[in-house]
Design goal:
alpha+beta, FAD/NAD(P)-binding domain, 2 domains
Length: 305
């Protein structure tokens, strides 16, 4: 955090109560958004958000900031289109600058199969409410002149799909805007409060055990991201989920000339430029399951082609 956000936002750190109507485990984007929308949309404010480290200290502070709805599954398209729409008005609603920028997302195709996949993506997106169109090589060049259509002679760009509503936002600012908005309405956010167990009555979860004592709750919400299996185990539930890290990196600063977000399923990468001029580049998940937040040299090596 290098923007002195606590000097700009109004945060109230209340002492934890013995019970709440809702306890949300996880103080990242999902947990804070849940608290914020419970308070603003439903008037539910007797809520506590418990974060074992600091707000946004997990995946929410380590992501590539892309906001999109161009998924290939109908249910996902509808779900994420709602997210795209909410982000458009979040700055006005919270009166906080989250650095939201609508850049457009260009998804490249490098083969006949890739072309069919991107045509299908555009059709599914259009049918279920997201704005995505198929584009040919010339249109790709118009959207992103920096793209080499020859692909170095190995991965030629034969077309793609373009999602004009694709956007980015600064993750730290999103987390803190949601936290402030929730706190202003009476929600408690407790940092450095680790959940070590769950309180139960029969087969029902009635609260949480923390390193600072038990807290009773009418409802306990899991918003712990990749650690969901750990919390599920505490509840006696074995979830069919494995957690794999996804790595990304930033380069040195360049001139602010690269405007769209560019991705490729064939090359397993996505790239965009930050407000400071860094190129932010990521790839697909690591094959080895892990809860680690550490990066590895093998990832950088795989990107240096």
């Amino acid at each position: 955090m290098n923007e002195f956000m606590e000097r700009k936002v109004k945060l109230t750190w209340d002492a934890p109560k013995s019970s709440y109507d809702v306890v949300i485990v996880g103080g990242g984007g999902h947990g804070l958004a849940t608290a914020y929308y419970l308070a603003t949309r439903h008037g539910i404010t007797n809520v506590a958000v418990l974060e074992r480290k600091y707000i946004g200290g997990g995946n929410s502070g380590r992501n590539t900031t892309v906001i999109r709805a161009n998924y290939g599954i109908p249910e996902a398209v509808r779900f994420y289109q709602r997210s795209v729409d909410l982000y458009k008005t979040l700055e006005q609603e919270t009166d906080r600058w989250i650095m939201h920028q609508q850049k457009g997302l260009l998804w490249l195709a490098h083969s006949e199969a890739g072309i069919r996949a991107e045509r299908a993506r555009a059709e599914v997106n259009t049918a279920f409410g997201a704005k995505t169109v198929y584009v040919g090589p010339d249109e790709v060049k118009e959207i992103a002149p920096e793209v080499d259509l020859t692909g170095g002679g190995v991965w030629p760009v034969m077309g793609g799909s373009y999602h004009p509503e694709g956007a980015t936002a600064r993750h730290d600012r999103v987390n803190w805007a949601l936290a402030e908005g929730a706190m202003q309405r009476g929600v408690h956010v407790h940092q450095r409060t680790a959940v070590t167990g769950l309180l139960k009555s029969g087969d029902r979860v009635t609260g949480v055990v923390t390193d600072k004592g038990p807290i009773h709750a009418g409802i306990v919400v899991s918003a712990v991201g990749g650690h969901v299996t750990t919390l599920g185990t505490m509840a006696g539930i074995r979830l069919p989920i494995r957690t794999h890290p996804l790595q990304a990196f930033v380069t040195n600063h360049y001139a602010l000339d690269f405007h769209p977000i560019v991705a490729s399923m064939g090359l397993l990468f996505y790239a965009s430029q930050t407000a400071r001029g860094e190129m932010l580049i990521g790839a697909e998940i690591d094959r080895q399951p892990s809860y680690s937040y550490r990066s590895g040299h093998h990832f950088l090596q795989s990107c240096a082609f």
